[in-house]
Design goal:
- By secondary structure, this protein is of the alpha/beta class.
- The chain has 12 helices and 9 strands.
- The protein has helices spanning 3-6, 23-31, 34-39, 69-80, 96-104, 112-120, 131-135, 146-149, 154-162, 184-187, 191-200, 244-308, and strands at residues 43-45, 56-60, 84-88, 108-109, 124-127, 166-172, 179-182, 209-211, 225-228.
- Strands 1-9-6-2-5-3-4 form a 7-stranded mixed sheet, with helices on both faces. Strands 7-8 form a two-stranded antiparallel ribbon.
- Helix 5 (96-104) links the parallel strand 3 and strand 4 (108-109).
- The chain is globular.
- The termini are far apart.
């Protein structure tokens, strides 16, 4: 491990921009994801769309805890042999133990100039334009990106300045790894939320009340399936980074492509479930229907308990 990773400010890297990575530490961190990789039965489709060389900006939908992001780093490295430098909310770097974890994973704060530098150097960079707001969305907003990407034009500006394509990646299953009992809005005045907001010095840091696998502190073991889209070549030079109309049009193009991938993934998941039901016949369908009824009853009872508390 390099001192630069532990004390980035000493090397002039105010925002955690670490150029050097310790390969052993990086691979060790990825190895620590093996259990969760199997737990969620992670599957990637379309990884051949990740270029073998040169820079590209990867964008995607984002779910609870940002749990979808590490698997992109893991699978792109293990299956394509390329390191992805992830951009993260500055909150990550205010948590001491996580700051060290982030830097050994090659994660840097989402500062535009740093992102442009990394891309120009030929790196793959990932970013989630919906940010924290997308990770704490309400249950009725599952797999929606448009409400959270509305004013997010920075990622397009960065790609234009660096002269690189944008690659959309959809993750199906990520919005189902927990059940949301109370929304972030409901929880914003709770003691925990106030303490967290005080620590982060911003009122946006409020999280919903989630429940995973029953009383266990584990997420629901749903299958995570990723769909990697074709690289979107923007067709403009760096000067277009200051053109609001171009930025908005390109953002719309990326959002539309990502939404198409998400809808395709959701349709594929439903078709897979239908095939399973057909294989089980009417008995399996009755069992699943009854299980869904019981599940809704348990969820309703849990919500009532949370509200009473």
């Amino acid at each position: 491990m390099h001192l630069e990773q532990v004390f980035p400010a000493l090397y002039g890297n105010k925002h955690g921009y670490i150029k050097r990575l310790d390969p052993k530490e990086f691979e060790k961190r990825l190895g620590e994801l093996d259990f969760l990789d199997k737990y969620f039965r992670v599957e990637f489709n379309g990884l051949e769309n990740i270029p073998e060389k040169d820079g590209a900006l990867i964008v995607g939908n984002h779910g609870p805890f940002g749990a979808d992001a590490p698997f992109v780093l893991k699978h792109v490295y293990e299956e394509r042999g390329r390191v992805v430098r992830a951009l993260a909310d500055r909150a990550v770097f205010k948590i001491p133990f996580y700051r060290l974890y982030a830097t050994t994973m090659g994660i840097v704060e989402g500062e535009p100039n740093q992102a442009v530098d990394l891309l120009k150097e030929g790196n793959l960079v990932s970013v989630y334009p919906g940010g924290l707001r997308e990770t704490i969305k309400r249950p009725d907003q599952k797999y929606q990106v448009r409400p959270f990407w509305g004013k997010a034009l920075g990622f397009v500006r960065v790609a234009l300045r660096a002269g690189v394509p944008i690659i959309p990646i959809a993750c199906i299953g990520i919005d189902d790894i927990v059940m949301q009992l109370r929304t972030a809005e409901d929880m914003k005045d709770s003691f925990f939320a106030r303490q967290w907001q005080k620590t982060m010095n911003h009122d946006k840091y409020s999280t919903p009340l989630w429940m995973g696998l029953g009383p266990l502190p584990l997420p629901i073991p749903v299958k995570l399936t990723y769909y990697v889209g074709w690289p979107i070549h923007l067709g403009y030079g760096p000067e277009a980074a200051d053109n609001p109309e171009v930025l908005k049009n390109l953002q719309e193009r990326v959002v539309t492509e990502l939404e198409s991938l998400i809808q395709y993934g959701l349709s594929e998941r439903q078709r897979s479930r239908d095939r399973i039901l057909k294989a089980f016949g009417m008995g399996g369908r009755r069992f699943l229907k009854q299980a869904q009824i019981v599940g809704r009853q348990i969820l309703k009872a849990t919500e009532q308990f949370a509200q009473a508390a």
